[in-house]
Every structure is written in structure tokens, then in C-alpha cells.
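Hi R.,

Here's the chain you asked about this morning:
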Amino acid sequence: MTGGRHPLRTVLIAVGLVLIAIGSAYLAGGLLGLLPLEMEQVRWNNIRIISGVAILGCLMAAIGYGNE
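And the predicted structure, written out as C-alpha cells:
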């Protein structure tokens, strides 16, 4: 039950959790050698960008949960 949570907060939580899952899965796959993971040059699959996606997801979910 959302307990009177605004729908935008619910969307923030859902999108945040999806970003956490995507970022974490790609990072794990890259570290295991299953997916390309650039360590030197700035590209879309750079380790900093992939980790940043997971961190953004954490922040979005935290904002969505607020004071619950």
C-alpha cells in the first residue's frame, strides 16, 4: 500500500530501482568480462558512467521514499 504517497514519488521509486538494477547488472557483467567495460576512455560503457547510473537510481529511490 502506498499510504497516500504521491504518484510522482512512486514513479521516482520505480525508475530508481530499475536504474539500480541496470547499472549494477552491467557493472557486474563488465567486471566478470561478460560485457564491454571501458576503463580508460570516456565512452557510454565507461565504469564511471555505469556506476553513476546506479548511484542516480539510489538517489531517485531515496527521494521517492522520502520520510517513510
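The chain has a mean pLDDT of 88.

Let me know if you need anything else.
M.
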